[in-house]
Structure formats: structure tokens, C-alpha cells
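Researcher: Re-running this chain for the archive, since the previous output was lost when a drive failed. Same request as before.
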Amino acid sequence: MRIQPPRPVVDEKEPFKHALFDRKNFGESLTALLRNVEDSLVVFVNAPWGEGKTTFAEMWRSHLRSQKLEVIYFDAYAADYIEDPFVCFSGEILELIDKRSTEIDGIEAPKREFKKTAVEVGKRLAGLATKIALRAATMNAVDATHITDLKNIGDDVAAGVSEIGSEIIEKKIEDYVAEKDALKAFRQSLAKLAKKFREEQGFPLTIVVDELDRCRPDFALNLLERIKHLFDVEGVAFILLVNRDQIESYVRAVYGEKVDARGYLLKFGNLFVDLPSIPPAFHEGKGRREFTQNLLTHYAFGKAAQNFEALSRSVEMLVEHFELTLREIEKAVLTMTLYYSSSSQTEVSDDFLVALLSALKVKNPSFYERLRRGTITAGDFFLETRLNNFAKQPSGGLSQDYANAMIEFCLMSEAEFDKMRREHLVSSQSSPPRTLLMAERFWRLSDRKKLIPFLCSRLEQFASVPE
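Model: Regenerated C-alpha cells:
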């Protein structure tokens, strides 16, 4: 058996071969959009964590390379130790231009101009005043290395406040004008560079920003500000792969709960789109079912399960019923893998319960914890999980009666169980209720109500490290 998740496969000849939810069509549409829009463009591509944003980025970049198109991929999380993302973007642009310089006629002069203006802007952004202003604006603490500088500034102001004259005010105005001119010169040089780049490849100078929703809030918001105020020029495009809810939480964390976080983000982007998460209705496409089956095949614990085909159908049904994300599916299947990898053949078990508890463990941890403690009744369970609605969906062979009976067997009170047994004895039914048949199947278990807590303890014995 395996316990490491499968690595995404990007086929260089067919980059979207293993893409889910018809994301090939989405990638091709995104390519067409960037080819045809000449203005500056900032596109937010939204998807929850674990829904394959990075995998899509890898496939899309490979798709572009197959057309001899180069874009910049920027891992924001890997760079959030840097004080200002301006330096990162400028460096990435220069690296890309160097890579393609032999293919673009006349690129050297605009490249030199861009580098010169970038250095000038970078120097102005790197001063202590900028750092302090940024920290104050983002409600972040000024670190200890700046305390002495702040004290000196305070002492200077206190000692010389009466001596401030027209010369100092004039110097401040001149500095402001110089900074404004430097920013203008930078944007102009970037526009010239981007124009040359677009003329060469028929595609804008494009930066794909990934993992922004994993960065420090101040870095993430500063990066958006830099894009808006410094890099928003014709011929430059940004594709921001984000969890929009998380970015909005950053806005509220920095500017307060009352701020309109969604409205705040609107000023940074031209377009907000969702990464496709369901197959299109008009034709077949790979989705969660194929993803789930690939995982079950990869982990190869089929021989350890009592009935692997029934288990697979149960997992598929639970994935759809609880609307598990791709990341949640990975976690649930890994939980099952660790359970089956460490189980003995004589251990009391049930494949359906293993799948169910694994799904609940990642989807609804608080409810799972109550199951583990044995404080959930059968009625509470069906009310919370709607598991008795299984029959309304294509179960692929999963028995509705079996699922309900197993839950009832494990969670019914003694009074309810005894009542069912008495009613069966006095009735003329030819066969006992399925719930009673569960008792015969698990006759070695001294107490039926211990089965779920026991399985929970086994699922947690070798739990994977949480992210």
C-alpha cells in the first residue's frame, strides 16, 4: 500500500489530459482572452483551498509553452519574507526578458530603461519611512530593529520643531515630486517593454500569482497595491489564483470587520471568475468521481477491504452527498488508507462505516468528535447528515437499507433496540429488520454502541499530520 498522495501529472504533449471539470476549455478560453484584450488585465481566479489551482496553473503554463508563449509564475507564499513584492515582480520580469532577449528585436534599450527606473523606484520604496508607514497602515507591530530609529526621529522632531522652516517644507515637496516622477517613468518604461514583448509573441507580459491566500495578510494586500499602482499598464496581465474568502478575511483583519472586503478587492481586478468545479452539462468531463477512483487505485488498499467494489461505491456516494472538496477527498481517502494499512484480518470492522467516518472526520470534525464520544442518537445523526436522503441520489449499488440499518444498529438506544426486537417477535414478518441482522453479524462485539467509537480510535491511531 501507499501513503503518499499521487503527484499531479502534466503531460507535455497533452497538458490538460488529466484535468478535472473540463478545465482544458477554461484554460483555452483564458488564453484567448489574454490574446484579444489589449488593455491591462487583472483576473482573479477563485477556488477554495485544495481545489487544484496550482495544478491548473502548471497545466496552463505547459499549454502556453506548447504554443511558444512564456509567462511568469510567481509563488507568493515562497516570497512573502521579502519586504516589498515590487522587487520580486521587477526581478521576474527582467529574468523573463533575458530569457527571450535573443528572440525580440530592439528589446535591449527598453530593458535597460526598465531596469534603471525599477532601481530608482525600489530605492524610494525601501526607506525606513515606507516600512513604518506600511506597518502602521496594516496594523502590524514595528519590529525591534526599528525602535532606535523611531526614537531618534522622535528626538529630532522634539528638538527641532521650532526650527522647521520653508527650506524643509520645500525639500519635502521636491522629494514628493521626484518620487511621483520616478513612478511615472517606471510605468512608462514598463509599458514600452510590455509592448515589445507583446509584438514578439502576440501575448501580453503575463504574471501568474499563486498561493497569495497563504501569505501574511500585510504582504498579500501590499502585493495587490503594488499591482494596482505600479504594474497596471497596457500590455501587462496578472492572473491571481486565490481563495477569495481567505483574501477577504485578510482585508477585514487589516482594516476592520466593518470594511466592505468584497468591494475593496474590486478596485484591484478587472475580472473575477471561478475555477470550474463541476463537469459541464453538455458533454462528458472528468470530475470528483474520477478523482476519487484515481485516489483509491493509487493507494491500493483494495485487498484489505472486505468488499472493495462496495467500498468504492460508498466513497463515491459520500463524496457527492457531503460535497467534499478535492483536498477533503484526499484527506478522507488517506485516513482510510492508514486504517486499512494497520488493520488485522480479525479486527471487527465495516467498510461503509470506515468510509463514512473518514468523510465526517474531515468535513465535520465537531460532529465526528461527538460520534467518537458516543453522544449522538440515531435521530440526531440522520438530522445532521441527511444520510437517509441517499435514496434520492444514484447510489451506484450502495444499499440504502444497509446504510440506514448500520447507523441504527450502532446508535439506537437500548430501549429503541429492545422495542424493535419485541415487535419483530410478535409480528408475522417473514424476515427480521435489517437492523436486527446487524446484531447477528457483529455478535462478537459485547456492546454494539462501542463499534463507532472503536473505529474512530482506529482511524486516529495513525492520523496524518494536518496542514
